[in-house]
Amino acid sequence: MKKISLHGFGLFSDKSLRKKYQAGEVIFKPHDPSNHIYIVVEGKLRFSMYGNDVDFFTTGDLFGEMGVVENRPRHGLVTAVTNCTLILISRPHFDTLIREQPDFATRVMAIISTRLHRRTKIELKKRSLERELAIGHKMQLALLPQTTPQIPGWQFATHYRSAWQVGGDFYDFIVRDDDPSKLCLVIADVTGKGVPAALLMAVARTLLRAETRKGQSAADVVQRVNEVITNDNRSPLFLSTLYAILNVESGLLQYASAGHDPPFRLRHDTKEIEVLPSSGFLLGAFSGVSFSQQEATLAVGDVLLLYTDGVTEARDKHGRFFGDARLREAILASADGSAEEIVSGVVTAVHNFIGSATQSDDLTMVVAKRLS
User: Fold this and answer.
1) Burial class of residue 157, CB neighbours in 10 A (0-12, 13-18, 19+)
2) Residues 340, 369: Cα–Cα separation, whole Å
């Protein structure tokens, strides 16, 4: 299998990041501080734990990321089998790459995923699996917005909780470069769980952001992303997506759905909840299909709720679904509150409903409330 390349981020061209090691030299040992992540430029290295060989690293391999991400000492021993040249990435440098280079994060997650599959054949699989899933979870959270938009006259709030350590839901806020009055809202749900779903999530996020920069309509953005995914999708997974463009000056919402749950609008004047029309195929399911664009206007006091099916399909111990009716009740119960209070009210209602039952799907919401 061809290795996933980490070229293209200035790491291989910067000679100051390189360090040479002699055969037999220890790169790090248990309890050493985790200050760097390593990429093998040339040579071969051995990773061992408790006297047992766990893995070998050769040209292009990444290692040492677990201790850096988890901010803990090393738990294994890495030694050079041959003379080696390594690239050393410091913790601050790695954090910057993850935050500012989504494609770098995507590739690192893919490398971790490949390593997970390989290590399932190793006796120490369970220890490695838990640590690497934790890294994938932290990297996935790094791809989600760290804050909500601060726009006069509006409130935004979100909630995300994965059912597994690594989930397939995501949301995003993107300000249009060509028109700062337009804020793009995205929510999506990959039809799967675990690392493969997280990888498709990261790819879709990057594609949606890239297409947004071109100033296209909501329907055009969704259609273009669908074509890219269907033309190069080696995975059996698909994803539902709701992509909306909100004009924060007029309140006009233009949106396109790719098989996603329809958004809810709470009207301030009537205290009624409307299900906004939406339809479309899942992204990655069919090539050459078109997506329709819908419009709605949010008046002062109105609330928009975007959510994934982990909300309505949350189950209690008897197997009953939370459903649309309970979701409506939860929204109305917090209708006069802030966007954050509305999200909190829905989350509380879901948790009270499922009780002791295990969360079966990712739970994601985005709420926008117009104040003026």
Assistant:
1) middle
2) 10
Structure tokens at 202: 């990261």
Count of alpha carbons within 13 Å of 278, Cβ hemisphere only?
Answer: 27
Exposed e or buried b per residue across 329-365, where buried means at least 16 C-beta atoms within 10 angstroms of its C-beta: ebbeebbeeebbbbbbbbbebbeebbeeeebebbbbb
Contact 347, 326 (CB under 8 A): no
Question: How far is Cα of residue 207 from the mean position of the Cα atoms in its chain?
Answer: 13
What is the CA angle 189-194-196, rounded to 5?
80
Helix ranges (DSSP H) in 274-370: 309-312, 323-333, 339-354
Which single residue is written with the structure tokens 């209070």?
341
Give me Rg for the CA atoms of the chain.
23
Tell me the pLDDT tens digit for each residue of 291-337.
999 999 999 999 999 999 989 999 998 889 999 999 999 999 999 99
pTM of the predicted structure, to 2 decimals? 0.65
The burial of 76, by beta-carbon neighbours within 10 Å (0-12 exposed, 13-18 middle, 19 or more buried), is given as buried
> Which domains does the chain show, CATH number per domain?
15-139 (2.60.120.10), 146-370 (3.60.40.10)
